[in-house]
């Protein structure tokens, strides 16, 4: 779209000139031709490669029951069954297990996504009046119509938009369509909205993130996705080259090579306000020229920044109650 709209702008500019071509000397015409050529060349440098622009993603997730959380509660987790980008199978970059956090899905502005959810939680297809057993995918940031909201009918007024027995509808698999429109670049959470209540089971482990990159974004050696829960970080890392996702779980140890360029994606879940610190590091506060060494982040806020990995340290939440709960992890530079 950038490419298509730009030549139109160029046309407008030339047509908008009150002089007709006969009024313009040959010299001026040559000048205009050179400018137009330079403009076309500079714009064509912005044209992305086919694999990163307007790609079609076909994604299949399941939601599964995992281990006991230590208090007799079963946790739930998303698992990537299949991810194809314009037909290319990239499923091997994800864990073969259901993980908390769920898979991080990397997209580029301009992409289109068809993403389905299958419910693999035992007993999910037997309706119980007043209780939803559906699981869904409700995403933030990207565009979609009401049928892809991933909520129950009591919220969206259309359907119970998930897999399993809902309050009214029962589906084995439910598919959503996302339009990764221009202007949606950023890191956004997705989560269940339908399990047991209309608020869903994000707190039981059904959450993940999408990273929407602008076209032509610089690449990073590692990406760390850290969710700030009310009592722990949940996180994972992504190798910038192989795109393999690893080190999932609570307060994960994040690993980097010395002098590599790494990017942190912080997403706050739950209800607490956090003060994130990466001790010994400073970074640019996005949208400003300020260098900061910690950041306050509240429910559903996000903060994305990059640093050059120099020294091993710890990341932590400096808010007293969260600090007392041990909300911290290692950042190992090797
Ligand atoms: Cu949400």
From TrEMBL:
- Official protein name in the record: Multicopper oxidase
> Listed GO molecular functions?
copper ion binding; oxidoreductase activity
Leader sequence segment: none
What the entry lists under Pfam families is as follows: Cu-oxidase_3
Which InterPro entries does this chain map to?
A: Cu-oxidase-like_N, Cu-oxidase_fam, Cupredoxin
Q: Which domain of life is it from?
A: Bacteria
The residue ranges of the Plastocyanin-like domain are 97-214
């Amino acid at each position: 779209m950038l490419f298509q709209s730009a030549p139109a702008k160029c046309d407008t500019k030339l047509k908008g000139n009150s002089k007709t071509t006969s009024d313009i000397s040959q010299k001026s015409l040559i000048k205009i031709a050179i400018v137009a050529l330079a403009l076309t060349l500079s714009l064509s440098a912005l044209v992305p490669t086919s694999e990163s622009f307007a790609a079609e993603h076909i994604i299949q997730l399941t939601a599964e029951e995992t281990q006991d959380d230590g208090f007799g509660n079963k946790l739930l987790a998303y698992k990537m069954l299949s991810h194809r980008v314009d037909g290319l199978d990239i499923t091997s970059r994800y864990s073969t297990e259901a993980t908390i956090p769920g898979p991080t899905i990397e997209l580029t502005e301009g992409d289109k996504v068809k993403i389905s959810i299958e419910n693999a939680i035992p007993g999910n297809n037997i309706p119980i009046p007043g209780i939803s057993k559906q699981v869904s995918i409700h995403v933030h940031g990207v565009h979609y119509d009401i049928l892809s909201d991933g909520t129950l009918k009591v919220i969206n007024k259309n359907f119970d938009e998930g897999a399993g027995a809902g309050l009214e509808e029962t589906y084995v698999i439910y598919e959503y369509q996302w339009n990764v429109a221009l202007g949606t670049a950023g890191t956004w959470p997705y989560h269940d909205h339908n399990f047991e209540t209309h608020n869903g089971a994000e707190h039981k482990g059904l959450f993940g993130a999408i990273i929407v990159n602008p076209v032509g974004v610089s690449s990073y050696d590692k990406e760390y996705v850290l969710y700030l829960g009310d009592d722990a970080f949940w996180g994972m890392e992504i190798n910038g080259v192989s795109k393999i996702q690893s080190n999932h779980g609570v307060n994960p140890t994040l690993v980097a090579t010395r002098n590599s360029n790494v990017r942190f994606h912080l997403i706050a879940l739950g209800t607490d306000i956090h003060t994130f610190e990466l001790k010994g590091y400073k970074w640019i506060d996005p949208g400003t020229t300020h260098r900061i060494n910690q950041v306050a982040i509240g429910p559903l806020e996000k903060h994305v920044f990059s640093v050059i990995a120099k020294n091993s340290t710890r990341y932590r939440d400096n808010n007293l109650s969260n600090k007392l709960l041990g909300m911290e992890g290692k950042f190992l530079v090797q």
